[in-house]
Specification:
Length: about 575
C-alpha cells in the first residue's frame, strides 16, 4: 500500500488532500489508510458519490480529474462528434463543487472536448436541460444532492438528456480505471476559452430554461393564482429560479425561509438536508403557519426533488408522501391530456396505474431510479401517446419532456397550479385526495429496513428456496422474481417479465396488498416496501378510511417482519 500512497501523493494536485494524506501516513493511521486505499469509489449508473477526502475511495480533485478523463475518452469513442458537440457542466453549492466542476472542464478541454460550464451554481435540472438545448454529447453535474455536507458527487447524463444506464456505466468505469495510470493533462480555463473550447453559460442560459418552462403547455396557469405559498431551498441552489418561475406563473403570495434561502454547503439549520427526514421541513412549516399558507414547499439542495406539506382543516401542516404527490399530479395532468404516457417505479404506488387506466392513458413501470423512468419513456412514447409525467416515491417528478430527469422546479409550479385550481373550485388538496381514493380505493404505502445477520446466507436465496405461500394470513397469488425475470401465479402458470434483472422479489396478496423485498447490495439489510388497498365506503370519513388502512398496514408489516 505504501507504493500506492506514494504514487497518489505524486499525482494529487491539491495541497490540502496531500497534507491530509501525509498526516495519516505520519500518524500510522492504518485503519483510515486501508479504508481509503483498499478500494476505489465505484462509478455506476448514478455516477460517483462519496465522502470528501484524500485517496481513491474518497471524492477529491484527483478522483474527479481521473473520472473526467475516463468519461471524455469514452464519449469520444461512443458519441459521434462528441468533441464538437461538447459537454454541459453544472455544480451545486457545496464547498468543493465549483473546483471539481472547473477541474472536469480543464480535463475535457485538454481532450479537445468543448465544454459549456455554468458561470455560477445551477440546479441539477437546469444543467440537465442543457444537453438537448445545446445538442451536447452529455452533461456532468457536480452534486451530492440531499446527502450530508461531508459528501459530494459526479452525476453523468447521456446525449439523450437522461442519466446514464447500462452499458455506459460499465464502459465509463473501465475508461476511468485506464485513466488512473495515464498522465493527466489539464488545459487552463482561460486558454480553453481563447481556443473556443470553453463556453461560459451566463445568465442568458438560465433565462432559456426559464422561458422554456414558462412556455411548457403543461405549466400554463388556468386562471386562479390566489393561493399563499411558502418555500425553502434547504440551503441549496433552487431559490432564485423557484421564486422566479412562481412569479412568472402569476403567484404573488410567495415567501421563502430566509435562513435557508442561500446556498450553504454545510446546511447549518438542518440535521440532514433531505425533505424526507424528520425535522427537515420544520422551518418552512413554521413559516407557513405564521402566514396561513395553503402549501409549504421544499426543494432538496440541488432542486431535482420536490416536497410539500399541506394545511389541514385544524391549521396544522402535514407532509404528503411522494406517492400522494405523484397521484395528485398524475390525476391533474391527465385531466388535461388523457391520451398520454405516464409511469412510475416498481416500489411506487400502483394508484397511478389505476388513475391512468381510468383516463385511457398508457402506463409503464420501471426499476427503481429516475434514469429508468426517463430512458424507458423515450422508448415507449408515441405520437398518439406522448410522454406526460413520471414519478418515483422518493420525491422525484418530471412534468413533460423539457428535462429528461426529475425536476423539482417545474414540479413546484405544477403543484402550485393544481392547488390554485382546486381552491377556485372551493376544494382543498385533501378533498381531491379523498375523491381519488373514493374512486380507486384507499392506497397506503410504507417502507421498512430490516438488519440481517451478516453471517447468515443471503436472504434472497432463502426466500427463493422456500417461497412464502401466505403473508399476514393472506394467500400469495402472484410472485414476481426480478432476478430470474419470472412471474409465477398460485395456479402454477408462469410468465416472463420485461425488465432488466435485479435482486427484487414482489408478492401480490389475495386482498390486493403488495410486499416488495430488496436485499441491500452494500450492507446486511433488507429493504421492504408495503402497499395496502382498503375499501373507502360512502359512509366513511377520510379519517376513518385512513385509520382502517393504517391498521391493515400495521398488521401486514408486523406479520411480514416476524416471518423473516
Amino acid at each position: 500500500m505504501s507504493e500506492q500512497i506514494s504514487q497518489w501523493l505524486a499525482r494529487d494536485p491539491d495541497p490540502k488532500t496531500r497534507d491530509e494524506l501525509q498526516h495519516l501516513v505520519d500518524t500510522n493511521n492504518e485503519k483510515e489508510l486501508t479504508d481509503r486505499f483498499g478500494s476505489r469509489l465505484a462509478f455506476g449508473t448514478a455516477g460517483l458519490r462519496g465522502m470528501i477526502g484524500a485517496g481513491p475511495n474518497r471524492m477529491n480533485r484527483l478522483v474527479i480529474q481521473e473520472t473526467a478523463m475516463g468519461l471524455g475518452n469514452y464519449l469520444i469513442e461512443q458519441v459521434a462528434d462528441a468533441q464538437s458537440r461538447g459537454i454541459v457542466i453544472g455544480y451545486d453549492g457545496r464547498p468543493d463543487s465549483e473546483q471539481f466542476a472547473r477541474d472536469t472542464a480543464s480535463v475535457l478541454a485538454a481532450l479537445g472536448i468543448k465544454v459549456y460550464l455554468t458561470h455560477k451554481v445551477a440546479a441539477t435540472p437546469i444543467a440537465a436541460f442543457g444537453v438537448l438545448e445545446r445538442n451536447a454529447a452529455g452533461a456532468v453535474v457536480v452534486t451530492a444532492s440531499h446527502n450530508p455536507p461531508e459528501y459530494n458527487g459526479f452525476k453523468v447524463y447521456w446525449e439523450n438528456g437522461a442519466q446514464i444506464i447500462p452499458p455506459h456505466d460499465a464502459g465509463i468505469a473501465n475508461k476511468i480505471d485506464e485513466a488512473t495510470v495515464l498522465p493527466l493533462q489539464l488545459m487552463p480555463l482561460d486558454e480553453a476559452h481563447q481556443k473556443g473550447l470553453l463556453v461560459w453559460l451566463e445568465d442568458e442560459y438560465y433565462q432559456t430554461y426559464r422561458k422554456t418552462m414558462n412556455e411548457n403547455p403543461l405549466l400554463i396557469p388556468d386562471g386562479n393564482t390566489d393561493i399563499s405559498i411558502v418555500y425553502t431551498a434547504m440551503h441549496g441552489v433552487g431559490a432564485e429560479m423557484a421564486e422566479t418561475l412562481l412569479a412568472d406563473a402569476g403567484f404573488k403570495k410567495v415567501a421563502s425561509v430566509a435562513e435557508q434561502r442561500e446556498p450553504e454547503g454545510r446546511f447549518p439549520t438542518v440535521n440532514f438536508p433531505n425533505p424526507e427526514e424528520a425535522g427537515a421541513m420544520d422551518m418552512v412549516m413554521a413559516l407557513g403557519k405564521s402566514v396561513d399558507a395553503d402549501i409549504a414547499c421544499a426543494n432538496d439542495p440541488d432542486a431535482d426533488r420536490f416536497a410539500v406539506a399541506v394545511k389541514r382543516p385544524d391549521g396544522e401542516y402535514q407532509m404528503l408522501t411522494g406517492d400522494q404527490v405523484g397521484s395528485l399530479l398524475g390525476e391533474y395532468l391527465l385531466e388535461g391530456q388523457p391520451s398520454s404516457l405516464v409511469g412510475n417505479t416498481i416500489v411506487s404506488s400502483r394508484l397511478l396505474s389505476s388513475i391512468a387506466k381510468a383516463h385511457g392513458a398508457q402506463y409503464y413501470q420501471t426499476l427503481t431510479g429516475f434514469k429508468w423512468l426517463t430512458n424507458i419513456a423515450m422508448q415507449q412514447q408515441t405520437k398518439e401517446k406522448p410522454f406526460l409525467f413520471a414519478y418515483e416515491e422518493a420525491l422525484g417528478y418530471t412534468v413533460g419532456s423539457k428535462v429528461w430527469d426529475k425536476d423539482g422546479l417545474s414540479a413546484l409550479v405544477a403543484f402550485s397550479q393544481l392547488t390554485a385550481k382546486l381552491k377556485a373550485q372551493g376544494k382543498t388538496l385533501w378533498d381531491k385526495l379523498e375523491d381519488i381514493y373514493r374512486q380507486h380505493g384507499f392506497y397506503l404505502n410504507a417502507q421498512r429496513s430490516i438488519a440481517l445477520d451478516p453471517k447468515a446466507p443471503p436472504i434472497g436465496d432463502k426466500l427463493r428456496a422456500s417461497p412464502p405461500q401466505e403473508i399476514a394470513g393472506k394467500r400469495v397469488q402472484v410472485t414476481e422474481d426480478l432476478k430470474t425475470l419470472s412471474r409465477l401465479f398460485d395456479d402454477g402458470k408462469a410468465e416472463s417479465i420485461d425488465l432488466p434483472a435485479s435482486d427484487v422479489l414482489i408478492y401480490y396478496l389475495e386482498d390486493k396488498s403488495r410486499v416488495i423485498v430488496r436485499p441491500s447490495g452494500t450492507e446486511p439489510k433488507l429493504k421492504c416496501y408495503y402497499e395496502v388497498i382498503s375499501e373507502f365506503d360512502s359512509g366513511m370519513s377520510f379519517a376513518e378510511a385512513n385509520e382502517l388502512a393504517q391498521a391493515k398496514m400495521d398488521e401486514l408489516i408486523q406479520a411480514h417482519q416476524q416471518s423473516l
